[in-house]
Specification:
Oligomer: single chain
Low-confidence stretches: none
Distance between the termini: 22 Å
Order of helices and strands: HH
Number of helices: 2
Structural class: mainly alpha
Helix content: over 70%
Shape: rod-shaped
Radius of gyration: 38 Å
Number of strands: 0
């Protein structure tokens, strides 16, 4: 009878371990989903900042274009003055250089944002892959407990039958 109780206790412990593993996996999955939602929020924020940067660059381009147009109109108004025309040409060249620098800066910033997002996603993907591998190892361990539990149950039933068989034969 003591062996039966011990084996029953072992079976109960195995079921509790399986339940605990299932609960832990569920909690881990919820944590990963929350983390994924947080990363989505960060990506949206990065997109908003990137759009704002593009809008600002467009505004700067518009202002520079207006300046160039005004310079052209001033040049036409002043007529053929040699000194002022040379100065206007220099200013126009300077503005064109600023346009190019603005485009280069915008491109560099966009590349930085892209690389940062890419690195964050790759890092998170590696973490999640590792966590999934670990949970699969735990699942295999809990799945290995199921056949062991069945074998213990069969052993308990066999022990009961063996112990009760002489008693039953004496009754008949």
């Amino acid at each position: 009878m003591d062996t039966f109780i011990d084996k029953l206790a072992q079976k109960r412990n195995a079921q509790e371990i399986i339940r605990a593993n299932t609960t832990a996996e569920t909690a881990k999955m919820e944590q990963m989903q929350k983390q994924l939602q947080a990363y989505d929020g960060l990506l949206q924020e990065i997109r908003r900042v990137n759009l704002k940067t593009a809008e600002n660059a467009a505004e700067v381009k518009n202002v520079l274009k207006e300046c160039m147009d005004k310079l052209d109109s001033v040049r036409k108004v002043e007529g053929q003055a040699e000194g002022s025309e040379q100065t206007l040409e220099e200013i126009k060249q300077l503005l064109e250089e600023k346009f190019r620098q603005s485009d280069d800066f915008l491109h560099k910033e966009n590349v930085k944002v892209y690389r940062n997002v890419q690195a964050a996603l790759i890092e998170e993907l590696n973490k999640q892959t590792e966590e999934l591998k670990n949970s699969q190892v735990q699942n295999k361990a809990s799945k290995a407990l199921l056949p062991l539990s069945v074998l213990i149950l069969i052993g308990v039933v066999a022990d009961i039958v063996i112990n009760l068989l002489p008693w039953i034969t004496t009754l008949f």
